[in-house]
Amino acid sequence: MSEKAQTEKRAQLEKATMALQELRNEQTTLIENRQKLESQLQENELVDAEFKLLSNTARVYKMIGPVLVPQDKLEATANVEKRLEYIRDEVKRIEVRLEQLAEEQQAKSTDAYKLQMELQGVSQA
Prior knowledge:
Layout: H1 3-53, E1 60-64, E2 67-71, H2 73-124
Antiparallel strand pairs: 1-2
Helix pairs in contact: 1-2
């Protein structure tokens, strides 16, 4: 293999390695986001469970800034249920993207490995 071809292979390997690193960075970010969402999900599930224990005549307050404002229990329950639905959808979206990233990482890793083997074969020859 010529020097020019070898240099081109090294550039391709570097590009593949950088792409793989970008995928890993995105994966790390998504995992952190998923953990935050799962924490929020647990908190909201606790609130939902507490609402189910309350009677329909119980007083519910919502904190707006430093002030507690009375809120209708049905409205508060509906808000929590919407929030739970949103969080679950976001967790599912992140899970799907993580699966896609795993597949992309596998493909990029394989490509980088092949390039590396080609370069090592040239170096040994």
